[in-house]
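Input chain follows. Return structure tokens only.
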Amino acid sequence: MKIGGIILSGGKSRRMKSDKSFKKINNRPLLEIVIEKSMKQLDYIFINSNNHENYNFKGKKIDVVKDCIRGYLGPLAGILTGMKWLKNKNNNFTHLMSFPIDSPFFPNNLVSKFLVHKDKYEIISANSGNRNHPVFSLWDLKLEEELEICIKNGTRKIDEFTRKKKTKVVKFKNFGYDPFFNINTEEDLSIAESRVLERDE
């Protein structure tokens, strides 16, 4: 099984009032942190963004792909974009792993824990503190056509799509805070400053 990882950064960052990809925690942009953490888990990572053309990370050019459907339709559109990108790039890809740009504390063993369930489910997603985090999911590329139809028919929320599919939810522990803590505001950024990035469980 060959997996590509997509960093979802295609939104308008309305609550942050500017592109949150370049907001910083301890002088490091969110985008840089998420790229580094996701690269530890997968060999190929790319970015879904409608705002910038390329990003060089430690000398490596990271592919940046705009939404395949116009209109800022949300993370499902980014996931569909990722599926299409992987299929066009290389027929050997079988799955897409999605990471949101605004949750930099995700576990370093996220993908490995998902892979345990890869043969039995079409979608595998994360849970912590009895709350689901469907933006962190492993997607079978065979879902591409069905997902595109659903989006064009008005589906916008990830769980609207996943609840109809064979989905596995994997639970992760909290370590005094949620490892899938989501940064949406300047206040959230301030909270994030005091948190440790490296977690292995």
